Amino acid sequence: MLDVLCGRQAERRPAWMMRQAGRYLPEYQATRAQAGSFLDLCYNPQLAAEVTLQPLRRFDLDAAILFADILLLPQALGVGVSFKAGEGPVVEKVASPEAVRLLRADRLGGSISKVYETVALVRANLGADKTLIGFCGAPWTVASYMIEGGSSEERLSARLAAWRQERWFEDLIEVLIESSVTYLSRQIEAGAEVVQIFDTWAIDLPGALRDRYCFEPIRRMRQELRSLHPHTPVIGFARGLGAGQADFVRVTGVDACGLESTVPLPFARDVLTPMCAVQGNLDPLALIAGGPVMRGEVLRIVESLPADRHVFNLGHGIRPETPISHVAEMIDIVRESDRCG
Ligand code: CP3
Known about the structure:
It is a single chain. This protein is an alpha/beta fold. The chain contains 16 helices and nine strands. It has helices at 2-5, 26-35, 38-42, 45-58, 72-76, 97-101, 113-125, 139-148, 156-163, 167-190, 207-228, 245-252, 265-272, 284-289, 291-304, 324-339, and strands at 63-65, 81-84, 88-91, 131-137, 194-199, 234-238, 256-258, 277-282, 310-314. Strands 1-4-5-6-7-8-9 form a seven-stranded parallel β-sheet. Strand 6, helix 12 and strand 7 (256-258) form a beta-alpha-beta unit. Helix 8 crosses helix 10, helix 10 runs parallel beside helix 11 and helix 15 (291-304) runs parallel beside helix 16. It is globular. Coproporphyrinogen III (CP3) is lined by residues 18-23, 32, 38, 65, 67, 69-71, 83, 88-89, 135, 137, 151, 198, 200, 317.
């Protein structure tokens, strides 16, 4: 994984899955029940390390991703966050100058240091040939949850604040850039070898807004991380940019870009791989469908993209209803293709 991300010759095509620790695994369900709530699990280093490692015991994966959530950062800034069963996150709204001023931007608080303990614990229990990925949400995506007060179909308030270039909105993005760099930097100091920035809602931002609130924050984060940790690669996952992934890579300087499932493979190969490594992009629903359809898609991906410029992954997170046997088969197909060269 590190060889591919750093542009070196690789032994084989690395593979992992976004949201690989999660509800499709019965052992995850059991550990989560033992922890109590989802947040209790995130802040329990022993149990969070356990669920981080679970998928690697089942599947021949090359990387573990820290078990946490992008909404732990707002909580560390002093914002109320909870997860309601079946409903997703509930976040205390931050959508005014006063609310932004109240954010505890200079010192991350709450239980966030537990996350760094989890990172250290995972690294200590992970094979030397496996890579540990840390992560955070991108400023735009995290801001959208803070402004909307949780998940939202269209994120209208957040998008409107961006169009209006509200002063408090710009201040919020600034706070998130600075605190996310601190957060990722601490994860790297604790043992994360790669970090991924999730901009799940990058697709919301057209034209000038995309430059200002997706590209520019991630460019700054990449630059500040490079000065703190020059050898740690950064993966940018700006979901939904399509052909705009090329500008994303050029502007931000990320070492790899995560591709949503609709990005055409010839474009990824011809335009993106000369600039960076690419990660993706099997449709999580093709994985649920399984059988010859899934096989065909996996082969199309691995045959289109060079093994030492590609990290096999899904185009978005694995869904809870995914059959475990399909995951095992998917990884087998990737491994077979390694052997066939
Ligand atoms: O990838 C991994 O295995 C690591 C863990 C991880 C989680 N969330 C655990 C989680 C990661 C990398 C995330 C990122 C995340 N969280 C994103 C960006 C990536 C993406 O998928 O687009 C976003 C937008 C969130 C916010 C979030 N967390 C939502 C909207 C929800 C509710 C919807 C859902 O999937 O349940 C969560 C909850 C969450 N985060 C769960 C897990 C395993 C499910 C909680 C549970 O166990 O009940």
